[in-house]
From TrEMBL:
<keyword id="KW-0547">Nucleotide-binding</keyword>
<dbReference type="GO" id="GO:0016887">
    <property type="term" value="F:ATP hydrolysis activity"/>
</dbReference>
<dbReference type="GO" id="GO:0005524">
    <property type="term" value="F:ATP binding"/>
</dbReference>
<dbReference type="InterPro" id="IPR003593">
    <property type="entry name" value="AAA+_ATPase"/>
</dbReference>
<dbReference type="GO" id="GO:0005886">
    <property type="term" value="C:plasma membrane"/>
</dbReference>
<dbReference type="InterPro" id="IPR017871">
    <property type="entry name" value="ABC_transporter-like_CS"/>
</dbReference>
<dbReference type="InterPro" id="IPR027417">
    <property type="entry name" value="P-loop_NTPase"/>
</dbReference>
<dbReference type="InterPro" id="IPR032823">
    <property type="entry name" value="BCA_ABC_TP_C"/>
</dbReference>
<dbReference type="Pfam" id="PF00005">
    <property type="entry name" value="ABC_tran"/>
</dbReference>
<dbReference type="InterPro" id="IPR003439">
    <property type="entry name" value="ABC_transporter-like_ATP-bd"/>
</dbReference>
<keyword id="KW-0813">Transport</keyword>
<dbReference type="InterPro" id="IPR051120">
    <property type="entry name" value="ABC_AA/LPS_Transport"/>
</dbReference>
<protein>
    <submittedName>
        <fullName>ABC transporter ATP-binding protein</fullName>
    </submittedName>
</protein>
<keyword id="KW-0067">ATP-binding</keyword>
<comment type="similarity">
    <text>Belongs to the ABC transporter superfamily.</text>
</comment>
<dbReference type="Pfam" id="PF12399">
    <property type="entry name" value="BCA_ABC_TP_C"/>
</dbReference>
<feature type="domain" description="ABC transporter">
    <location>
        <begin position="3"/>
        <end position="250"/>
    </location>
</feature>
Amino acid sequence: MSLAIQGLTKAYGGLHVVSDVRFEVPKGALVGVIGPNGAGKSTLFSLITGFLAADAGDVAFEGRSLGRASPMERARSGMVRTFQVPREFSHLTVRENLMAAAPGQAGERLIDAFFRFGTVKAQEKEIAAKVEETIAFLRLAKVADVPAGRLSGGQKKLVELGRALMTGARMILLDEPFAGVNPVLIEELSVRIRELNERGIGFLIIEHDLPALNKLVSTLHVMDRGELIASGTPAEVLANPRVRDAYLGGAAA
Ligand SMILES: Nc1ncnc2c1ncn2[C@@H]1O[C@H](COP(=O)(O)OP(=O)(O)OP(=O)(O)O)[C@@H](O)[C@H]1O
């Protein structure tokens, strides 16, 4: 089991935003999380990735309890998230954004760099090669030297995915990857996600675009008012009366 979400709970004042949510994401799986606005999906992602401290519950990744590990420590262990609103550095180019996301750059510590010049050089070369490979894989060559702030919504999502890939993550949590993305790039992003999944990277995806999500995932988990109300294949979940009730008038998303 790759990721085990074990009773995560979070409240603000009296408002239970995430209540005892538990499910597992098998190694290399493609899994979706859906639910109406305000259901607690983004908060759940923040709890899983350590951006928020849970009131109760825990997360285990690849069999290891993460307890109070920071987002950085969780990323180092192989799990990262993207955000609904991409957090790219808008003044940096696409290439620089990818470069900056690489972990463990010895060059970050100048004293280390002074004493281990050869190591730094070798590592920089390795990172530069990975950046170029990621640019090619995501078809971003044409915009590699463009400041990220000038990209379209869809291109920004590709950069965000690229930044996650640069960390070497084996599990990537995507928060609304298709929001504000044109249909052509939605298809492009979906193809890339599928290819990465075939290479063994697991994905947990929050998305309101159910037709696009259902083409990707094998399992859906549904949240409503902080609770997990259904889990199953997309067909099973969407036929579930409780899920239909959760969405206004039974119209999914
Ligand atoms: N820092 C906070 N303080 C108080 N309430 C919060 C805070 N963060 C989130 N909430 C509330 O928690 C609930 C869940 O928010 P969350 O963003 O996790 O939902 P969501 O399912 O991701 O929604 P959406 O689909 O609209 O992005 C909402 O009612 C929100 O107003």
